[in-house]
Amino acid sequence: TAVVNRVRRGLYLDSLALMRVSQSLSSLAGIDTVSMMIGTPANKEILREAGVLDPTGESAAPGDLIIAVRAKTAAAAEAAAAAGGGHVPGQESDQAPRASHATNTSTTDG
User: Fold this and answer.
1) Which of 74, 53, 73, 72 is nearest to 64 (CA)?
2) Is residue 39 within 8 Å of residue 57, measured between CB atoms?
3) Which of 49, 59, 66, 93 is deepest in the core (most CB within 10 A)?
């Protein structure tokens, strides 16, 4: 299992729009889950508990968008994170995705 986070700095979007994009990306082959949330402490705790927050996502500020993906492979996770970034307006991600390889739902920095 691989976890990839991408952060879009200074990008706040409606949670309903984020949910729609997340659901669409979650249906891609090899993708277990996609979560797109603003980087508030409460949202980061939700992502952490779900096992999809990596150090890149941890660095997000409350005005940043976190795109968090768990997939069967790092390549699939990175592709979905990139696609998620392409579905929202704004500048390109300030941080490239980092694959964290995990066993079960625990993440380790890989």
Assistant:
1) 53
2) yes
3) 66
Greatest pairwise CA separation for the chain in angstroms: 34
For residue 10, the tally of other CB atoms under 10 A from its CB is 11
What does the pLDDT look like over 45-98, one tens digit per residue?
999 999 999 999 999 999 999 999 999 999 999 999 988 876 555 544 444 444
Which pLDDT does position 88 carry in this prediction? Answer: 58
- CA-CA distance, 82 to 4, in Å (whole number)? 10
Task: Identify the sign of the CA torsion 77, 96, 56, 91.
Answer: negative
Q: How many residues does the chain have?
A: 110
Q: Are 12 and 66 in contact (CB under 8 A)?
A: no
- Collapse the DSSP code of 1 into the 3-class scheme (helix H, G, I; strand E, B; otherwise coil) and give the result: coil
